[in-house]
Amino acid sequence: MSSRRQQSRQSGASRITDDQIADLVSKLQQLIPEIRSRRSNKSSASKVLQETCNYIRNLHQEVDDLSHRLSGLLQSTDADSAQATIIRSLLM
């Protein structure tokens, strides 16, 4: 048997099925607010993946923005205050 065929058979056991993909796409649709708020549940898998990527990018940007704001707030507070301790714990 050729090595390609052998690799194909070995990796075939770990391949994901179309039903599993459909299930995962459905779960993503439920998690992403922009998709969940639509009245129609029909979206292509590629559209769901694109919107998921956009949503994750937006979340990363929000985290970066909040971290920056907290850092600025920390610099303007007394280093030994309870507020500074809380802010430091949020930045960890």
From TrEMBL:
Protein's cellular compartments: Nucleus
Keyword Transcription regulation among record annotations: yes
Pfam families: bHLH_ILI
Entry keyword Nucleus: yes
Residue ranges annotated for the BHLH domain, each copy included: 5-59
Cellular compartments per GO CC: nucleus; proteasome complex
Alphabetical UniProt keywords: Growth regulation, Nucleus, Proteasome, Transcription, Transcription regulation
Protein name (record): Proteasome subunit alpha type-4
InterPro entries from the UniProt entry: bHLH_dom, HLH_DNA-bd_sf, PRE
